[in-house]
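Give me structure tokens for this 390-residue protein.
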Amino acid sequence: MLGCCIAAAIGPIVRILQRQVSLCSTLTSAAMPMGIVVYLLMAPAAFAQPEIRTEPSAKVVNVGVYVSPPFVVAETSTYDGMATDLWEVVAGNLDLATRYVPYPTFRELIDATHKGEIDAAVTNLTITRDRAEIISFTQPWYDAGLRIMVPDEGSAGFWSVVSGLGNAGHLRAYAWLLLVIATATVGLTLFDRRFDPEFPKRWRDGVAESFYNVVSIATAGRATTRKNLFGWLGRIWQAIWLVVGIGVIAYVTSSVTSVMTMASLERGIHSLADLPGKTVGVFTGSVAEDYVAELGIVSRSYPDVDAAAAALQSGHVDAVVGDAPILEHYAHSRPQENLSVIGNIFHPDKYGFAFPHESGLTRPVTLELLKLIEDGTVEKLRSQYFGNRN
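Here you go.
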């Protein structure tokens, strides 16, 4: 069979060569110049050469990403994560070359997609009706929802404690204590300079010595070794100072403890129903930001989960509301930060890749995603980053 195909392919060429040889013989006999004869002999061979085809290069697409571990993780020179891994599989099947373009917030990524500044948006991008009005989404490839992240029970941020001390009037009492300590330091310095011949003569040395003695009494409930200049009266005076110091210690300790306990109880958030009246951290341009606004809950916007978690630990917000897998991954990967994700998932949603309207990529990417969902590739990636389902 192969021989027949070869014969069929070269048969026309052989016949052309035969005609040319016959023609050249006739022309030679007619004394045609030799150059023309050579040209006529070489021309068929030149036209008979096979055509050289160059394979078209892969189409380069600009893909916008929003860093959101574990879906998009910034590496040294590229990006990793479930969303980017899934996109790379799809792009490979469609012969697409990817150029990643990072965006700092969901809102900016969506705006860039809507304006056509990028060809696709890849991250944990929730499909909503409002977003679908300005951009096109693929088949969903991940089911998610919102959850709440709070500090572990019993913990309270520094600023929440300070705020609690101020609201309870303790900061005003602390200011009076500082004034008493300053007055006592000056008084003790004048007293010792007058009656103790061994007391330092330089003012700064004397004030430092007196300040140390006063603070020692106020904070430790005991006095340093001092001379008893007035016999039994001096001892009674020193004993009174010790009692005052113990009272100061007890007051400061009890006030701070009570405020920390109260802050912890007030922050006792266990579900969505506990959020009204609290200040909640959300991600800029996220579905959570829109949702808590609809509920009338006071919120503060942060560009990413790291900034929101820092605000939570410092007491600037009482909780963080965000995509459940993002909060769960953050709390699990950073146990030293003592954060917990509580309550059930609410406001269920789905993730998809996004494209500008009229993009020719929406349909082929959707078909590839359907194939990868059916053959188990998507579930394998989910298990790789989140483990097996319970």
